[in-house]
Automatic annotation (TrEMBL):
Domain Nucleoside transporter/FeoB GTPase Gate: 43-140, 219-314
Residue spans crossing the bilayer: 48-71, 121-143, 149-169, 207-229, 235-255, 292-313, 325-343, 378-397
Metal-binding listed as a keyword: no
Claim: Lipoprotein is one of the keywords in the record: no
Protein's UniProt name: Sporulation integral membrane protein YlbJ
Keywords from the named record: Membrane, Transmembrane, Transmembrane helix
Gene behind the chain: ylbJ
NCBIfam families on file: spore_ylbJ (TIGR02871)
């Protein structure tokens, strides 16, 4: 009871302090809110919406189960998750945070995976998409497309290693399945695909409408968290809490032989990855390798803004948040170490010997990522506005239909 009361007091005090800070710094809070809204409006919403809708429809049509049967021999021995986890992993890397959590939660709600398998899966299927790594960080912040290769490799290899480590999380619930079919069965996969489609009685229009409504509702929630943490991060800086925490963090950085100047970007990145990465790239007096290590750690940890989004998504299931939190800390350190290891062979050697890694292979991802990033900034708001209008129309039509049937 004492612990519960203490938690209540702490939470209430935190909310009061936040409210007081909002009243004290209204102009700064509004500016921070606009920055968060701009990020969601221009980039996050239009980039994630197609993936979310397609994922919902693939689950409804049984394509995910089809993929699951084919990937079972790969995913089960490596990560101790069913083959459908391969779909969540691929979509999570392609579309970015928090698509992996969204798809994992849907798979759990469909009872295609157990709670423990979902906790293993969600721990390594949430990743930053290549568009953000190459377009925003490497080109936009650092102005150096070559760094995108190191950041991407350390991030995705870190995710893979975390998946291998998290396979030991929880008991082995299905010992027999890991020793079953070592070869994928196309016939069985097609049979499962057909059976799943027949079991879902929804017509195509209803399925598409459900996918749109579910996806946009999730993205509205994500937008709220982005704006909230953008304001929260700004308020922490205004009341000097960020500097206070950074003062103590600087001693920890010195233990790892990193510049204490990286403490502020690190603290900011723990809350929001975009701001933390931007601040790290702006430190002119800090060695580029150290900037890269901190940025890689921030990407691996993902930031409390992403944590809050994931926690909200899995709140409707029996998936626990603690394994995800542990996995994010683990990936932060693993990704930072990988950035250090890859620095010489991937970056320095390439500068000294251009033939080691063809320049075209390095520049190509950065070019298309930067182009896509520019397109999203230009046309993203239009896509968002059209999608929200469609959402309102579909949702209103369903409410009208429901009221009509009740009468």
């Amino acid at each position: 009871m004492t612990r519960s009361r203490m938690k209540t007091v702490v939470l209430a005090s935190f909310v009061i302090i936040m409210a007081s800070a909002l009243v004290t710094f209204p102009k700064e809070s509004l500016e921070a809110s606009k920055i968060g809204l701009s990020m969601w409006w221009e980039v996050v919403f239009p980039s994630l919406l197609p993936f979310f809708i397609v994922a919902e429809m693939l689950i409804g049509f049984g394509v995910v189960k089809f993929i699951g049967v084919l990937l079972e021999p790969l995913m089960r021995p490596l990560f101790r998750v069913p083959g459908v986890g391969g779909f969540a992993w691929a979509m999570g890397m392609a579309s970015g945070f928090p698509a992996g959590a969204k798809i994992t939660a849907r798979l759990r709600q469909e009872e295609q995976i157990t709670a423990i398998e979902a906790e293993r899966l969600v721990s390594f299927t949430n990743a930053s998409n290549p568009l953000f790594i190459f377009g925003a960080i490497a080109v936009g912040f650092f102005g150096n497309p070559n760094l995108g290769i190191i950041l991407a490799l350390s991030h995705y290899l870190g995710s893979f290693i975390v998946g291998i480590v998290m396979r030991f999380h929880g008991p082995n619930e299905q010992k027999g399945k890991e020793k079953q079919k070592l070869k994928p069965s196309l016939v069985e996969a097609l049979r499962v695909l057909h059976r799943t489609r027949l079991n879902d009685k929804r017509p195509l229009g209803k399925l598409l409408g459900d996918a749109v409504i579910s996806s946009i509702q999730t993205l509205l929630m994500i937008g709220g968290f982005i704006i909230l943490f953008s304001v929260f991060n700004r308020l922490l800086s205004l009341v000097n809490i960020t500097e206070l925490i950074g003062y103590f963090t600087s001693f920890s950085l010195q233990l790892f032989k990193l510049s204490p100047d990286l403490s502020i970007p690190l603290i900011s990145g723990l809350f929001e990855i975009t701001l933390g990465s931007k601040l790290a790239s702006e430190l002119m007096d800090v060695e580029l390798l150290q900037q890269l290590i901190i940025t890689s750690f921030i990407l691996g940890f993902s930031g409390f803004s992403i944590h809050a989004q994931v926690a909200s998504i899995i709140a409707d299931t029996d998936i626990r948040y603690k394994p995800f939190f542990f996995a994010r800390i683990l990936q932060g350190f693993i990704s930072a170490i990988l950035a250090l290891v890859l620095w010489k062979p991937v970056y320095l050697d390439n500068l000294a010997y251009g033939e080691v890694i063809p320049v075209s292979l390095i520049e190509q991802p950065s070019v298309w990522a930067n182009s896509l990033w520019g397109l999203l900034s230009t046309y993203g708001p239009i896509i968002t506005l059209i999608s929200l209008t469609l959402y309102i129309f579909v949702y209103a039509s369903r409410l009208f239909s429901l009221n009509t049937h009740k009468r």
